[in-house]
Amino acid sequence: MEAKEEIRSRLNIEDVVGQYVQLKRAGRNFKGLSPFSQEKSPSFMVSPDKHIWHDFSSGKGGDVFSFVMEMEGVDFKGAMDILARRAGVDLSQYKSSGDGNFAKKKERLLAASELAAKFYQQVFTRSPQAIDYFKRRSLNKQVIADFMLGYSPENDELFKALTKRGFSEQELRDAGLLVTRRGRPSDMFRGRMMVTLMDAQGHPIGFTARLIKDEPNAPKYINTPQTLLYDKSRHVFGLHAAKDQIRQQDFSVVVEGNMDVIASHQVGVKNVVATAGTALTEYHLRTLSRFSPDVRLCFDADKAGIAATERAIGMASNLGITLGIIVLSHGAKDPDELIQKDVSLWQAAIQQPKDAVEWLLDTYAQQYDLTSADGKRRLTDRIITIVRTIADPVLCEHYLQVVGARINTSYQALDKKLHQQPDAKPAIRPAAQPAAATDADPAAYQDHLLALALAHVQLRDSLKKLEPQEFSGELRQVIAAHIKTGAPLLQSDQINVKINELELIAEAKYPSLSDELYYIAADIAKKIKKEHKAMLRDNAKKQFTQSQSDIERQELNEHIKQLDKEIEALKH
Hints:
Elements: H1 2-10, H2 13-17, E1 24-26, E2 29-32, E3 44-47, E4 52-55, E5 61-62, H3 64-72, H4 76-87, H5 92-95, H6 101-125, H7 128-136, H8 141-146, E6 150-152, H9 157-164, H10 169-174, E7 178-181, E8 184-187, E9 192-198, E10 204-211, E11 221-223, H11 239-249, E12 252-255, H12 258-266, E13 272-274, H13 282-289, E14 294-298, H14 303-318, E15 322-325, H15 335-341, H16 343-351, E16 354-355, H17 356-365, H18 373-387, H19 393-407, H20 411-418, H21 445-455, H22 474-485, H23 493-509, H24 515-546, H25 550-570
Parallel strand pairs: 12-13, 12-14, 14-15
Antiparallel strand pairs: 1-2, 2-3, 3-4, 4-5, 6-9, 7-8, 9-10, 10-11, 15-16
């Protein structure tokens, strides 16, 4: 299953579903109209956190693979092929070896990166030059440990150390730790301060290496190239240490430099992360939005910073993200410098973000003569281009009003200019074979009882009179047995997906316990019991018509009568 996990880790389920269904943010989830029915009120839910979708109108649900299977009318292998192409995963690397070589390769690269990070930490402790540099940067022991900071020696010690640990030259090249110098393998990083790049779980996946001595012709920074582990268009530096604080503070701060992140964390402002300079991508924003829909950028007000903000506004709007800009005070060129002046200045700055579009308007206003016709035209050309990327019509109207007031131009004139070019909307792909409403799972209502019992312990008594086998389908039966008896759940992908789907149902429909939920749970339990007995009765009737034995037919007749009584009793 390694290929499946690799594909899932690279794709956001809302991206894939959004190709077929127009989604809108609903809290931490997304909502849209069901592609399986003709509903008018949206009941189709997608949870980015759980990587799950559920359609309340048909009762269908599952992960990204099951969604593509439904929409494209393909089997699991077909869905794998479609999603692998989208994720950039080469399935041949998995197919070539059934023993999981690809997963093993990834594990080896992770192990090599972790050992390299520890090696650089050890080298730092015996390097007076590096220790002096860290002291000048006022880096304390805790932040050095948290971010696995270190120093790379000016020779090929790492190559020798890791080959002794059994790593091959090719493995070290694949991990981005080795290059060729003068025709020989050599350490990628030499004589530099090492900043470890970690994934969201804190596993080392690469490095940024900073020059700490004067070498005029040498680049100040060297980064790990793209590898199986590290992709700069996806990596968010510091997320492993920031994610809890982003959730608690309900906003994230994105800065340009890794050292800005480290300086901020050291003074206790920990909801701060960085991308590779101003190279902010939609993937970065999607990743951050999973923790909070409030993202605040702190980029330089230079050409690159302005361009990054312009790109980010449209992406943020489509993702339901509130995008703010942090403006530094007291002439500080970056957060690190402001923190060195006074921590409270940085704390105040991140609490007072400026609206991204209005910040751009202020920036443009400094570039053009707004008393002239040409200045007004050029400013409105730029700001209208930005407004066109915003999906929310209320926000569009607001920004046009702000611009109009700034340049003394009517809202009507700006609105006319806005609509001179149509606002292109993302195309929604039709399903290859749209599923009919009759495809709905008739037993989907049973999921609601399981969801209630999982979410609210107080409602588990509603399962007391039910046997697990009275639920429809093996997955529901296994989960019902787990809830009722505490039997351990077999760890499988199917069960994990189903559990996540049930949690999404509970979150969307039954977030808090109330008296009404007791009645709902009891009614569903009664319906399950009644339908199970009706199935037993129908089976008994079939056996009755096929039986050649008078004794067996008499016994079956008595059994059918008893089931009829029990079903009738359940109607009241």
